Amino acid sequence: MSYSYQINSFEQYKEVYERSIQQPQNFWADIASNFQWRRKWDKVLDWNFEDYKVEWFKGAKLNITENCIDRHLEKLGNKPAIIWEPNNPDEHHRVLTYNDLYNKVTQFTNVLKNNGVKKGDCVCLYMGMIPELAIAVLACARIGAIHSVIFGGFSAKSIADRLQDANARFIITCDGAFRGGKDIPLKSLIDDALESCDFIERVIVCTRTRTPISMIKGRDVWWEDEIKKVETLAMAPAPAEEMDAEDPLFILYTSGSTGKPKGVVHTCAGYMVYTNYSFVNVFNYKLGDIYFCTADIGWITGHSYIVYGPLSAGATTMMFEGIPTFPDAGRFWDIVDKHRVNILYTAPTAIRSLMSYGDEPLKGKDLSTLKVLGSVGEPINEEAWHWYDEKIGKGKCPIVDTWWQTENGGILISNLAGITPSKPGWATLPLPGVQPCLMDEQGKEIEGAGTGNLCMKFPWPSIIRTTFGDHERCKKTYFSTYPNHYFSGDGAMRDENGNYKITGRVDDVLNVSGHRIGTAEVENAINLHAGVVESAVVGYPHEIKGQGIYAFVIYNGTHNADDEDLIRRDITATVTRIIGPISKPDKIQFVKGLPKTRSGKIMRRILRKIAENETENLGDTSSLLDAGVVDEIKKGKL
Ligand code: 6R9
């Protein structure tokens, strides 16, 4: 079965797109009429990109969980909502039907209530990929609490920063998480974070790994005990709180080119409408399809396309606890085979990594159920695209190359599976309602085919509303570079047919294995090492990760000075401690000086070229203060 707003042909896409641009308000009002509202909106859209403010479906009242769960119960109650595949293939998988999900979410909402959580409170979730994470996310949304999910690869210090920034009062975590051959000590990391966060009132701990953990009386409680309390009290399933369209739904931290990560805020109505619309249309989802997005819920892809988009569409969404290479590089294909997966959505870095194992892991795996393949997170190189197409899709599955960002809430540029044409390495066309454009360095819009900085001229329903606690930062980051436009930070090419190819970030943000990492953040962490004077971090092409982290470091410490490798490991350990293992530098080169301009600015452009091995072609170096520094760095290149 399909959806009334599902686009069925390229011709129809063109018509729908045209209407969405000519009459955006009517267009989105029609889409929104497919949802369950407690009260309809007074106005579809109010917007201002100059003094940034956007409001969608103003005046409407709703709860997103009624749309993700309650409204499906009558027809889909016994259908699987979530299929969970554990890290260890020998452990049994779990299936939660929509009825199960309703029971568990309403029950856990009561747990939150009993623990004093109220509408508007911020709840931080630091959990592994188990169904309880999705349950906790939805329970927060049901009670109207703002969730802030933190990915399990962040350090205690990063957690503490996020807790402080969001004024969180509650934490939901697990004793630990299984990821491949590793156990991640989640609760212990939370304990470390809480040493500097005495404002946290309650930590709810869900059992997963049975790792020994500390439990502090009056602060820490077990998930399972709290559920028992709710059962003993025989509390009725918790009703959903009535939310305003523009009430915040969640905060998700993401890296930018400067300083600390920012808390991207998404709100209830627009986010719901757009994630649902884009999910149904990009993947061409048909009721009954088994859909598998391999992302972690700690990232935006997991929020929008494991939880909210699929569940609001009554889909069956998979959650996978583990990693693509555990117990071996055939794991994704085992999962596709075992669960008869129809739609697979993953990242180029995973594809490249699995590609490197050759054909062996594919042997004997039945992938014939696959209909649609998706890619997200970074540009997909043609080699990976063709491998994905031939080996996984057997040449019969459209590949959707979906471009979007944490700040966008949902996919903005992508082909629609089987409906609009694909082009290897190209994200292709904007979704209905999305108005991209390319700008040159002078701030002039580029017409026709060309290359420039990717911007948006008009808001879509799930556009970022603010950066938590600092609206000025939001305005400055996204709406000041090009007046009256949203600036993505990405560069792109456009062909004569209006297709877009995203070339990558044009700012100081790296994309390592599909994870966004700010170079300034990594530099700040390296500079905290006692022997480091100064550092500069740039990206370089990495075969599997897309980009690797290359650090140039001025070191004057005396300790272990004769053992460069040990110093490198100390620096790496420092970065892991401050940010987390995802930001570890791949290469650390010790240098005597950094190339600077006369005004003292590091010339990263030059360092980037050196890291990319393009030492012959450094471009204009006339503003360099000391050209000798560059020669020295070139000689020491790793
Ligand atoms: C969804 C997500 C956003 C950055 C974005 C861009 C890169 C994402 C891409 C892509 C080329 C694609 N990116 N999808 N680049 N083609 N299909 O990844 O969000 O973590 O915020 O990262 O990822 O550089 O600016 P987020």
From TrEMBL:
Quote the Pfam families the UniProt record gives: ACAS_N, AMP-binding, AMP-binding_C
Q: What GO biological process terms does the UniProt entry carry, in alphabetical order?
A: acetyl-CoA biosynthetic process from acetate
Query: In its keyword annotation, does this UniProt entry include Protein transport?
Result: no
Ranges for domain Acetyl-coenzyme A synthetase N-terminal come to 13-68
What PROSITE patterns is this protein classified in? Answer: AMP_BINDING (PS00455)
Swiss-Prot/TrEMBL keywords: Acetylation, ATP-binding, Ligase, Nucleotide-binding
What sequence ranges are listed for the domain AMP-binding enzyme C-terminal?
Answer: 521-601
Q: Name one GO molecular function term.
A: acetate-CoA ligase activity
Fetch the InterPro entries from UniProt.
Ac_CoA_lig (IPR011904), ACAS_N (IPR032387), AMP-bd_C (IPR025110), AMP-bd_C_sf (IPR045851), AMP-binding_CS (IPR020845), AMP-dep_synth/lig_dom (IPR000873), ANL_N_sf (IPR042099)
PANTHER family from the UniProt entry: ACETYL-COENZYME A SYNTHETASE, ACETYL-COENZYME A SYNTHETASE 1
Family named by the database record: Belongs to the ATP-dependent AMP-binding enzyme family.
- Entry protein name: Acetate--CoA ligase
What is the species of this protein?
Answer: Arachidicoccus soli
